[in-house]
């Protein structure tokens, strides 16, 4: 394969060289290491850099990133010196010092890398064109002309792509490794993947798997965030690092909700300061325990660019070895060039799926169900209720529809548990929280019932034995202080 930095004196190739942009890109990467992984996935290798100084810097940045080292301009220059190439940078006056002209935002850095890749492709195409014209002048054979044309197509097609093929031997070894992992997990009684905290759910999913994009879908107020935080708490508590992106709440607010989960003190009370000294001590102890967990939050709710999130997730994966990413929620994400609802969510979904495949870890993306659930007699979720995009259903390995019967009980809407048949009119038990597996690429499509106390964000597979919702018309919130059983009075409470 011809490479873009092959020496040539042709004026026709000079227009495809932009040394300034190449140096700006490596300078930006030295200052924004979170963007290294996305850029590496875009560029085929160091051959795209036609400037020797920029190419040396990119090679050293890639080495440091691969070794898991902290990347700063000084660290890059130190590595350049260790390789005996510092004089090249000095002669080129490339210091990696902050340059206000260098791309600073994730989108700008990606744009810069795409521009360099485009020049690399055009350089190669132009160089092959010169060869082709020379062959035509020399009356080359048809076979030689076809070979030249095939080579240029190969270069242009594969530029920016990694290894695409996998031999049957490689695939077989990978498959055997998965089987061994599954058998080992079964022997210990653990989930094969990252545990959800629900043995009922894990029975059908095997835990969150490394090749899964999971959509957790529900209407506003259905407890999506509480459910996701409970999943995060269970995974981190089992020793699996978790990265949590929230487009709505800062990290401190999420920690308060987790503290409510651990203490059993209602989130509303904590938020409003309605706690006594004993409650405060419990909250303080809970936060101390939470601080020990491998939980990482992206604390900038104003940033919703999907490429920025991918860059941060890649950095978490490299530095913190995160094994699960949770995004709250997917319809909040943005992608440049797409502003309309359907197109935007479709492209965002594709980008999130690509991120999951590149990171090779499960990604749980929360999604909002459409209002169609409210307008029909049976509001139970369906996969067609996913708001604005069929792409969510297509790309997801697992779709879980969340359904909270008590929400409708509070609105005096009588619903019956369909598991007993509609004709029997058996109401839901208090505290029932339904997880409908609307799509399960690797297992059964079933309903999993959990007990939920959304005021504290607590979930459990066990039910404390409340009466049916229908028998309690004044029911407001399970285990509230308004006439219902409190947590302390329930002897077999599952906490």
From TrEMBL:
Kindly list the biological process annotations in GO that this record carries: DNA replication, synthesis of primer
Task: Name a Pfam family for this protein.
Answer: DnaB_C
Q: Does the keyword Zinc feature in the UniProt annotation?
A: no
Position of the signal peptide? none
A GO CC annotation given for this chain: primosome complex
Q: Which SUPFAM superfamilies match?
A: P-loop containing nucleoside triphosphate hydrolases
Identify the EC number(s): 3.6.4.12
Using the record's annotation, list all stretches that form the SF4 helicase domain: 187-466
Q: Name one GO molecular function term.
A: ATP binding
Asked if the keyword Amino-acid biosynthesis belongs to this entry, the reply reads: no
Q: Please indicate which superkingdom the organism of origin belongs to.
A: Bacteria
Q: What SMART domains does its record include?
A: AAA
Which UniProt key words apply to this protein?
Answer: ATP-binding, Helicase, Hydrolase, Nucleotide-binding, Primosome
What EC class does the entry list? Answer: hydrolase
Recorded protein name is Replicative DNA helicase
Organism name: Rhabdobacter roseus
């Amino acid at each position: 394969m011809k490479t873009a930095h092959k020496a040539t004196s042709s004026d026709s190739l000079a227009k495809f060289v932009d040394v300034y942009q190449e140096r700006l890109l490596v300078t930006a990467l030295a200052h924004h290491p979170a963007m290294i992984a996305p850029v590496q996935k875009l560029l085929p290798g160091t051959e795209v850099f036609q400037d020797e100084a920029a190419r040396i810097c990119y090679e050293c940045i890639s080495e440091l990133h691969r070794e898991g080292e902290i990347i700063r301009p000084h660290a890059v220059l130190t590595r350049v010196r260790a390789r005996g190439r510092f004089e090249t940078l000095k002669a080129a006056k490339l210091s990696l010092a902050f340059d206000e002209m260098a791309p600073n935002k994730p989108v700008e850095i990606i744009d810069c890398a795409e521009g360099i890749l485009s020049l690399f492709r055009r350089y190669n195409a132009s160089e092959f064109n010169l060869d082709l014209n020379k062959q035509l002048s020399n009356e080359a054979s048809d076979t030689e002309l076809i070979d030249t044309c095939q080579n240029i197509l190969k270069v242009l097609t594969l530029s920016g792509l990694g290894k695409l093929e996998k031999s049957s031997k490689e695939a077989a070894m990978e498959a055997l490794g998965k089987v061994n992992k599954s058998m080992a997990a079964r022997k210990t009684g653990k989930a094969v993947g990252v545990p959800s905290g629900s043995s009922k759910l894990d029975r059908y999913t095997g835990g969150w798997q490394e090749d899964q994009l999971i959509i957790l879908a529900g209407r506003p107020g259905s407890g999506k965030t509480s459910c996701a935080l409970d999943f995060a708490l269970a995974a981190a508590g089992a020793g699996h690092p978790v990265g949590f992106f929230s487009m709505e709440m800062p990290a401190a607010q999420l920690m308060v909700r987790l503290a409510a989960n651990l203490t059993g003190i209602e989130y509303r009370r904590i938020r409003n300061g309605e706690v006594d000294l004993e409650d405060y001590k419990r909250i303080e102890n809970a936060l101390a325990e939470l601080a020990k967990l491998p939980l990482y939050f992206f604390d900038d709710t104003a940033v919703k660019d999907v490429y920025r999130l991918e860059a941060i997730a890649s950095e978490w994966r490299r530095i913190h070895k995160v094994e699960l990413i949770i995004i709250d929620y997917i319809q909040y994400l943005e992608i440049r060039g797409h502003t309309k609802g359907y197109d935007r969510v479709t492209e965002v979904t594709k980008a999130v799926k690509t991120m999951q495949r590149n990171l090779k870890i499960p990604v749980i993306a929360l999604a909002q169900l459409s209002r169609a659930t409210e307008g029909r007699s049976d509001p139970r979720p369906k996969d067609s209720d996913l708001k604005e995009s069929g792409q969510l259903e297509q790309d997801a390995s697992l779709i879980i529809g969340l359904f909270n019967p008590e929400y409708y009980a509070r609105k005096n809407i009588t619903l019956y548990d369909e598991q007993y048949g509609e004709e029997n009119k058996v109401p839901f038990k208090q505290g029932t929280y339904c997880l409908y597996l609307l799509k399960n690429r690797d297992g059964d499509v079933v309903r999993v019932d959990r007990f939920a106390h959304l005021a504290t964000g607590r979930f459990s597979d066990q039910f404390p034995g409340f009466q049916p919702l229908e028998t309690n018309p004044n029911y407001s919130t399970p285990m509230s202080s308004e006439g219902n059983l409190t947590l302390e009075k329930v002897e077999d409470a599952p906490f």
